[in-house]
Amino acid sequence: MPKTSPRISGFTWIKMKSFLLLLALFLLLFPAAPDRVESDTVVCRKNKNICSTLLCPLFYSSNGTCYDGKQKCCARWNLKNMMQWFRKEDQQ
């Protein structure tokens, strides 16, 4: 004799459908998203740097990106940066 699957009563079927509908609605209203991350442009501007399209201006060095990697984030040179650059040149 073949096994038959147990029948689900009408009330249980309605509860299951309503649960799935509520779950789908909940996932649509509150999608699982990572914490908000600041864009590279915002980080560049907060550090008082500028965004440049091709090359950084004179006395600026590239230290990141802007506009999702389409531009360079340029920081103004200071004495500390210049000394590090000269030390790198001497080591090579």
UniProtKB/TrEMBL annotation:
Pfam families: Defensin_beta
Recorded GO MF terms: CCR6 chemokine receptor binding
Keyword Ion transport: no
Signal peptide (from-to): 1-39
GO-annotated cellular components: extracellular space
A biological process term (GO) from this entry: defense response to Gram-positive bacterium
SUPFAM superfamilies xrefs: Defensin-like (SSF57392)
Annotated keywords: Antibiotic, Antimicrobial, Defensin, Disulfide bond, Secreted, Signal
Main subcellular localisation: secreted
Domain Beta-defensin-like: 40-74
Localization of this protein: Secreted
InterPro entries: Defensin_beta-like (IPR001855)
PANTHER family (UniProt xref): BETA-DEFENSIN 1 (PTHR21388:SF9), BETA-DEFENSIN-RELATED (PTHR21388)
UniProt similarity note: Belongs to the beta-defensin family.
Name by which UniProt lists this protein: Beta-defensin-like domain-containing protein
Taxonomic lineage from the root: Eukaryota, Metazoa, Chordata, Craniata, Vertebrata
